[in-house]
Design goal:
Layout (H helix, E strand, L loop, with lengths): L21 H9 L4 E6 L17 H7 L1 H4 L5 E6 L1 H4 L4 H8 L7 E5 L2 H4 L2 E3 L5 E4 L6 H16 L3 E8 L4 H4 L2 H14 L11 E6 L7 H10 L2 E6 L6 H10 L5 E5 L10 H8 L10 H16 L4 E5 L1 H4 L2 H13 L8
Parallel strand pairs: 1-2, 1-10, 2-3, 3-6, 6-7, 7-8, 8-9, 9-10
Antiparallel strand pairs: 4-5
Protein name: DUF72 domain-containing protein
InterPro entries: DUF72 (IPR002763), UPF0759_sf (IPR036520)
Pfam families: DUF72 (PF01904)
């Protein structure tokens, strides 16, 4: 009688990974282990042939695609954006962690209930100030602790993205900085549960980018999350802040191509879908990023860079080009 184990035929996964590209496998082997590239979320049907072996709808990919995504040789992190719209439980985080290898890292966005200065109606219009904005207890209970309990060592960065602020809040930057300092000082430590994880703060208003903001982050051991978005100055203008934060981990979210302007998300989405190719290549930004990534990784610090489809047209294509830039001599520091 056949052994019982031989009678078990494991089910075919709902989403199969694309066949690895030999060039990308070789490229991945050239990258430092501490350097992780990825995308903003993963539920895009247009990535068939690049990330997925077959065509699937968005709902199937959102539910079943992460394990296949994590098999791609260059995708070793992902920006978990769904946590922005609704807090996630430890069990939900744990279910995601179970689908990826041990060396995979998540970049997790804080819920809007914490990071948005405004209360909003069902259409997203501001209707008043948010009483939970940067609240330490709420941030711990609804964000940091569930992530620690569910993701553990697979946390790369917990990102508090402070969106465009109401004028009444933005008018008093010292008060905002005090509020941010109180929050960061009150958060539980990430180690030893997540020994290489960091708290990172991303902003959408350029008024934040002053020395006092840097001082608040450094005092709390937090990092600046470089946000590449038209609402902010270009990467070259943000380099002084990054240099002032040295040394430490580098966290970046490349969100939207500058050609679309501060409110161009929907235009980019319409123009770039189905996100299967580069439409607006931005080699200058890639080269600048590559220099920072190489220098940070060479000094032994973690690097986490995630790319949105709206940056150049296809996040997996952007990741491949970024990896080539990092591996190329043309991206060497000081060139």
């Amino acid at each position: 009688m056949p052994h019982q184990d031989l009678l078990f035929d494991p089910p075919e996964p709902a989403v199969r990974p694309a066949r690895p590209d030999p060039d990308q496998l070789a490229l991945a082997a050239q990258l430092p282990a501490s350097l992780r590239l990825g995308t903003s979320s993963w539920s895009f049907p247009g990535w068939a042939g690049q990330v997925w072996a077959d065509q699937h709808d968005e709902a199937t990919l959102a539910r079943e695609g992460l394990a296949a995504y994590a098999r791609h040789p260059l995708l070793r992190t992902v920006s978990l954006d769904r946590s922005y719209y609704r807090p996630m439980s430890a069990a939900q985080f744990a279910a995601l962690a179970a689908q990826v290898p041990e060396d995979f890292r998540f970049v997790v966005k804080a819920p809007a209930m914490i990071s948005d200065g405004a209360q909003r109606d069902a259409g997203g219009r501001p209707v008043g100030l948010n009483p939970g904005f940067l609240d330490p207890a709420l941030t711990t209970e609804q964000f940091v602790q569930p992530a620690l309990d569910g993701l553990g060592a697979r946390i790369g960065a917990l990102v508090i993205e402070i969106g465009p602020l109401p004028g009444s809040l933005k008018a008093d930057l010292p008060a905002l900085l005090q509020r941010l300092a109180r929050l960061l000082d009150a958060l539980p430590p990430l180690a030893p549960r997540a020994p290489d994880a960091v708290i990172a703060v991303e902003v959408r208003d350029p008024e934040w980018l002053v020395p006092a903001f840097r001082d608040v982050l450094k005092a709390a051991g937090a990092r600046y999350c470089l946000g590449l978005h038209p609402r902010l100055p270009p990467i070259e203008a943000q380099l002084p802040l990054l240099r002032a934060m040295w040394p430490g981990a580098f966290v970046c979210r490349w969100n939207l191509n500058r050609r679309h302007g501060a409110h161009g998300y929907e235009a980019a989405k319409a123009g770039y879908a189905p996100f299967d190719r580069l439409v607006d290549p931005d080699p200058a930004t890639r080269e600048a990023l590559a220099r920072i990534m190489r220098g940070t990784a060479a000094a032994g610090h973690p690097v986490l860079v995630t790319v949105n489809n709206k940056a150049e047209g296809s996040a997996p294509c952007s990741v491949a080009e970024l990896a080539r830039a990092v591996a190329s001599d043309s991206a060497a520091p000081g060139r």
